[in-house]
Amino acid sequence: MAKIDFGGVEEEVITRSEFPMAKARQTLKKEVIAVIGYGVQGPAQALNMKDNGFNVIVGQSKQFQRDWDRAVADGWVPGKTLFEMEEAAQRGTIIQMLVSDAAQRAIWPMIKKCLAPGKALYFSHGFSIVYKDQTKVIPPKDVDVIMVAPKGSGLNVRRNFLSGAGINSSFAVEQDATGRAYNRCLAVGIAIGSGYLFPTTFKQEVFSDLTGERGVLMGALAGIMDAQYQVLRAHGHSPSEAFNETVEELTESLIKLVGENGMDWMYSNCSATAQRGALDWRPKFKKAVLPVFKELYQRVATGKETARVLSACGAPNYQESLRKELAELGNSEIWLAGKATRSLRPHQAAKVISKSTKGVTGRSRN
Ligand SMILES: NC(=O)c1ccc[n+]([C@@H]2O[C@H](COP(=O)([O-])OP(=O)(O)OC[C@H]3O[C@@H](n4cnc5c(N)ncnc54)[C@H](O)[C@@H]3O)[C@@H](O)[C@H]2O)c1
Ligand SMILES: CC(C)(O)[C@@H](O)C(=O)O
Ligand SMILES: [Mg+2]
Ligand SMILES: [Mg+2]
User: Which of 172, 174, 227, 255 could bridge across to 145 with cysteines, CB 3.0–4.6 Å?
Assistant: First the structure.
């Protein structure tokens, strides 16, 4: 493992050169990898592994016709490489649990029956194993239990693979029954298109992932956008102005600069006025939201968020109520303003500018 200094803390990271594709192919040459679930991660991981030359089959319930049809449209052949979940799990030697987390609890009794000794049970989230008191997912002792959790949307797992970039993932071995669990885990990580692989545990992964997606990555992000937009609108700003200053400028401009070189560098490349204001207001926002993040982490650690997911997402009418909730969000003024704003992005001009590197590299840090 390469040792990398993360802000003064040394961590170990697996690189592609340490575990090259040839080693992954050698490690998995006798394995049949059964991807159970063709939602978001399922298609990305299955297609990347297939394109990388691994022996992959897909298990998808035909009751979810839309997902079955997507699998067929993506080239999986019913009866050859696409099966009902149970048949795929019987045929697989590595069984990838890529149905939704709530569905993993529902299909577990069926999956358990297919776990012959020596097979590997694979997850992309620590959820089912860590909250086993609630999910009842308790694997037999004679199978490997491994995880590779891509740190991004399944859409990017596939998009980055196709662009040649890859995506970083964390990985963990929960149970090594065969003595091969570690290598199997890393080999699948490389096979699905991971760039760098960060060691973790099932518990650390699920606690941080649930916090992140409820917090800064999705929940907090949408919440603070709503709040700022509301204040601007209440003071008479037009929807386009409020949206531009809340979302569009973030996604189209500033966050890309943060991604390139960090927050201080982005601050170094805006006006002195914006820089002063941002530095002054940062601690105020931190103070305001810190208690909310503490409450969130507690709810994750005590399993309350898991109970919420299992009861809500496992309910029979959930898809219908979810559709309504998402439609309400999509039809709210801020996101309708967003739709109009997106149609006005000046793509042509951007292409012309990108041919030159003059003036695009930015100021160095102060
Ligand atoms: N979506 C992501 O980008 C992402 C990123 C990292 C990790 N993960 C993890 O990957 C795993 C899969 O998540 P996902 O988002 O790809 O899947 P998802 O939540 O979109 O689930 C969709 C799949 O579950 C199946 N399904 C739903 N209910 C079912 C039921 N009752 N019985 C049988 N099948 C059912 C659907 O047919 C479909 O195949 C989860 O553990 C998730 O936490 C997801
Ligand atoms: C893509 C995310 C938010 O990182 C993932 O954790 C998920 O659950 O979809
Ligand atoms: Mg998640
Ligand atoms: Mg995540």
Answer: 174
Dist CA 76 CA 83 (whole Å): 9
From residue 362, how far is each of 214, 255, 262, 365 by CA, in Å?
Answer: 33, 14, 12, 9
Q: Of the bound ligands, which one is closest to the alpha carbon of residue 157?
A: 1
Q: Clarify whether 125 is annotated catalytic.
A: yes
pTM: 0.95
Q: What is 2-200's CATH number? A: 3.40.50.720
| Mean confidence (pLDDT) of the chain | 95
What are the φ/ψ torsions at residue 168 (nearest 5 degrees)? -85, 150
Residue that the structure tokens 């695009």 belong to? 360
Residue 20 CB neighbours (<10 A) = 12
**Every domain range in the chain assigned CATH 3.40.50.720:** 2-200
Ligand 2, atom 7, residue with closest C-alpha: 153
* Model pLDDT for residues 147-156, shown as the tens digit of each residue: 999 999 999 9
What are the tokens at 277?
């204001």
DSSP lists the bridge partners of residue 96 as: 35, 122
Site to probe by mutation for ligand 1, drawn from 35, 36, 40 as the one with most ligand atoms within 8 Å of Cβ, is: 40
